[in-house]
Write a structure and sequence with these properties.
By secondary structure, the protein is α+β, with helices and mostly antiparallel strands. The chain is built from 6 helices and 4 strands.
Length: about 140
């Protein structure tokens, strides 16, 4: 996790766009005051994971960076396919609500979507890993 301006991650200017309140570019995800370089996950997938983690364990006092730190373990070659499949499943379900992607949905509808697929192995595993990954951070404990 790098605490710097996202534009400083590379020497060349990168096309950047916003997704779910996060800035994403080629190989990175960034928020206010932090950036995360990714080796294996698509930046769109990490941004979706951060939003999903925030939806599963909502804490207004926590910044996206805390969720990103908790999800850093998913940026591995052996995890990238499962994440891509899990996000694709959520995106596919979002179509039934009239949205192209999970991250495009309003929060209230995202909750309804997750209730329709509660026994997803991907979501169950994500919930379990977030309990320790999120709440095991001293800064998170101090903020709550």
């Amino acid at each position: 996790m790098r605490h710097q301006d996202a534009g400083a991650l590379t020497g060349a200017p990168l096309p950047m766009r916003e997704l779910g309140g996060l800035v994403i570019g080629s190989g990175f995800v960034a928020g206010a005051g932090w950036a995360m370089e990714l080796a294996h996950l698509a930046p769109e997938h990490m941004a979706a994971l951060i939003l999903l983690a925030r939806d599963l364990y909502p804490h207004g006092a926590l910044h996206d960076e805390a969720y990103a730190k908790a999800l850093l373990g998913y940026d591995r070659a052996d995890e990238a396919r499962e994440v891509a499949t899990g996000i694709a499943t959520l995106d596919s379900a979002a179509l039934g609500f009239g949205y192209r992607r999970y991250v495009d949905m309003p929060k209230t509808l995202r909750a309804g979507l997750r209730q329709e697929i509660p026994d997803s192995a991907f979501l169950a595993r994500l919930r379990r890993r977030l309990v320790t990954g999120l709440y095991g951070q001293p800064a998170v404990c101090a903020a709550l």
